[in-house]
Input
Amino acid sequence: MNVLVLGNGGREHALALALHRDPSVVALHCAPGNPGTASMATNHAVDASDGAAVVALARELGVNLVVVGPEAPLVAGVADAVREAGIACFGPSAEAAQIEGSKQFAKQVMVAADVPTAASVYCTSVTEVAAAIDEFGPPYVVKQDGLAAGKGVIVTSDRAAALAHAEGALPAIVEEYLDGPEVSLFAVTDGITALPLQPAQDFKRALDGDEGPNTGGMGAYTPLPWAPEGLVEAIMADVVQPTVDEMRRRGTPFTGLLYAGLALTSRGLRVVEFNCRFGDPETQAVLSLLESPLGEVLDAAATGRLSEVGELVWAPGSAVIVVLAANGYPGVPDQGGRIAGPRLFASDDNVHLVHAGTALDGDDLVASGGRVLGVVARAADLDAARADAYAAVDALDAPSLFCRRDIAARAASGLIETPTL
Ligand code: AMP
Ligand code: GLY
Output
């Protein structure tokens, strides 16, 4: 199989790494890719959101499968363009990608499918937001309706801050606050059958102790040692399958990766958000433990044959990713900072670097994005994986980058209480 991966982040580097391990993938390309993907794939300077350019490249390369990484090309209809050209594509249509592209659309689907989620109000003015937050009470949750790279949400008990955020986020959704630990569950689907990956937990806030603003994600780990028995089965039965069925019923079948972000609240599980693609950075940890051939799985989903694929097979143990972001992120990040260190281009079995926002300046690797690098470690348990990940972080010489020091710490110490389902 000849595969083209679209995107240039850490998720795409992780997808390329896992595809490269699949013996059925004989040629691997990325557009545009990054310095990390260049070590196992051929990078092409093509804009992932330009459907015509992607189709031309896919034809020229003779690819059998296009895997779309980020949400922006999906919402822009790139998967539609690829399929119209007769090439298999892993990723939903523009219409189905609205499950991420519009929080209001996602709420409508969940209501129709009877999927549990936070109560919410759609607001087009700050006055409406003020009325809605007063109705729900603190902590206040205000979300921009459209795409915002993980940064469109505020959760705060400061009423003035909630209203100030709303000013720049209209139209906005105001939601009831959901307590309890969060879970990210990814499901591969061909529009009918859905197959879960291993669950993960993501760290959305910029700073230790879940302080600071929301980001795209500062770290993750998998699996969840505290997860209640039957968690994945319950999410598949109560959330993923009903959503996949409802999307098909509407005439906009969802094929690709359905990402369910959930809170395990004291009143049961609730959807916090859906995404229409693999999560970043959870994917980097999750795929590092995948033993099934990823190319075959994604191709089966893209061609409506997912029911022929059995349950996915996972390596034992735990995986952790610690994200290094440029100082200033999620605001305006410092760019161009030099990155040096012993592990930059080497990778061993258990610890590897994932490039997210890097560039080459001559022979130097430099920061060129918000989230710049991820360190992924796999080990027998979470404690050991954390220790290995942070040892590798400490071996890097990258003064313009910062990371959280508490990724997976509470889970490794057994401090997350197992919620009841
Ligand atoms: P979203 O972009 O909708 O995933 O929101 C980003 C993050 O904000 C989530 O991962 C949660 O940590 C937090 N969040 C969103 N909605 C809620 C809610 N209703 N209650 C509590 N926290 C929330
Ligand atoms: N890690 C959160 C996301 O990918 O949206």
In short: Residues 16 and 292 are 14 Å apart (CA to CA). The chain has a mean pLDDT of 95. The longest helix spans residues 231-249.
